[in-house]
Design brief:
This is Spore coat protein. By secondary structure, the protein is mostly helical. It has a domain of 63 residues. 58% of the residues lie in helices and 0% in strands. The longest helix has 29 residues. It is flat.
């Protein structure tokens, strides 16, 4: 009798741990790259000008948009059979019927 290798999904806790590790690694890489670029161009805290309210609001909006995109990636919507796929074309049968009559 053959043994079947069944897929055993990881527990939710293990999955959350992996996501947390990936987030931490991503944050570390991003910080390292940004610090290197700023250092390369001679940017220091002393040389920075304070942001005006308009710039602050633009940054807040950008962060909210990014957070929304991350949430959508983490929690993809379930596609049902009734939902048309992007690759599917809808056929206009009325136009063809008119020609046949």
């Amino acid at each position: 009798m053959e043994e079947k290798n069944e897929y055993k999904p990881e527990s939710q806790n293990d999955n959350n741990s992996l996501v947390a590790q990936a987030d931490k690694m991503s944050e570390t890489v991003t910080n390292t790259l940004v610090k290197g670029i700023l250092r390369k161009h001679g940017v220091t805290k002393e040389k920075l000008n304070p942001l005006d309210e308009e710039q602050k609001e633009e940054l807040r909006k950008m962060v909210r948009d990014l957070q929304k995109q991350v949430e959508e990636l983490r929690n993809p919507k379930v596609i049902t059979e009734d939902t048309p796929k992007k690759s599917e074309k809808t056929v206009n049968t009325r136009g063809r019927r008119k020609g046949l009559l």
